[in-house]
Specification:
- By secondary structure, the protein is α+β, with helices and mostly antiparallel strands.
- The chain has two domains: about 5-70, no CATH class; about 100-275, no CATH class.
- Helix content is about 10%, strand content about 20%.
- It has four helices and 13 strands.
- The chain has helices at about 5-10, 45-50, 70-85, 275; strands at about 15, 30-35, 40, 100, 105-110, 115-120, 145, 170-175, 185, 200-205, 210-215, 230-235, 255-260.
- Strand 2 (about 30-35) and strand 3 (about 40) form a beta hairpin.
- It starts with a helix and ends with a helix.
Length: about 280
């Protein structure tokens, strides 16, 4: 959609509370009205009836909009971010379910080496009555920046792998892989269901829709009560020369990995976008 068409279908004074130049294509509580350079909260019903369509011209708050007054850099940056969306294939994590968010990444799980989650576990001094059940673990945020589109490239590393630590005596390293049906993606354009059997994972914002990649891993192979000293997440996907093209832009996109609460594990194959996006 051209800038002129977008201005006609969406109120130019609509923006996010912390970023006036950005907005979602659907009603959102973080939207505010910036008419007369004053930030005012807007109800979701008002956004649906006026702000997000041509009816904004009849809104009592609306003032004739001069496109020349629109901040050029943020708007251009927003358009560039949406058009230059990159998706990356991801498969790594642990039973507690990782959620990839706010990235613009595109990854393919075909023709690539499987991703791995390496967990170091102390297997000494355990009694014989331990039962193998899922064990939650922690993880750190992994962040990078990207703003480019592209196609899957096999055999290319996303980033330089970190050095492997020297194993501690009595510690076992376990490599995990996702199961079919436990990994996929959800999108804000679909109110029901998910895409956990798709051959790709999508994450980011494209054509006004939000995509979240989600995956769940089983730690039942780890003895119950065994301390987990560290977890390593390995990602493969696009050639890294396609990533972070706009490094010098303050608003260039990024992605992160989020560890969800264990309650999300129940009925995992049935979760939709709202359930996963709002999960703690």
């Amino acid at each position: 959609m051209s800038n002129q068409s977008e201005l006609k279908s969406t109120c130019p004074y609509l923006g996010l509370a912390n970023d006036r130049a950005s907005r979602f294509s659907y009603p959102e509580s973080s939207h505010c009205c910036f008419v007369n350079d004053q930030k005012t909260s807007i109800s979701l019903d008002h956004q649906s009836n006026f702000c997000l369509n041509a009816n904004h011209l009849t809104c009592a708050r609306y003032i004739d909009f001069d496109p020349d007054l629109t901040p050029s850099s943020p708007a251009k940056s927003e358009t560039t971010q949406q058009k230059n969306t990159t998706f990356i294939w991801i498969a790594a994590g642990i039973f507690a379910s990782f959620l990839i968010i706010t990235g613009i990444i595109y990854l393919s799980n075909q023709g690539l080496e499987p991703e791995e989650e390496s967990v170091a576990v102390d297997t000494t001094d355990f009694t014989a009555d331990h039962i193998s059940t899922p064990t939650p673990t922690g993880t750190g945020n992994i962040e990078t920046t990207t703003n480019a589109g592209g196609q899957p490239v096999s055999g290319a590393f996303l980033a330089t792998p970190t050095a492997t630590n020297t194993p501690v005596p009595g510690v076992e390293t376990i490599t995990l892989s996702p199961k079919l049906g436990s990994i996929g993606w959800v999108t804000s354009s679909e109110e029901r269901g998910n895409n956990f059997t798709d051959s790709y994972i999508y994450s980011g914002i494209f054509d006004g829709q939000i995509y979240n990649g989600a995956f769940q891993f089983d730690l039942s192979s780890v003895p119950r009560g065994a301390p987990i000293y560290r977890a390593e997440l390995q990602l493969t996907g696009l050639n890294d020369e396609r990533l972070d093209i706009n490094r010098d832009e303050a608003n260039s996109a990024g992605w992160a990995v989020k560890l969800l609460d264990e309650e999300i594990d129940r009925l995992w194959p049935r979760h939709n976008y709202q359930t996963i996006f709002n999960a703690p």
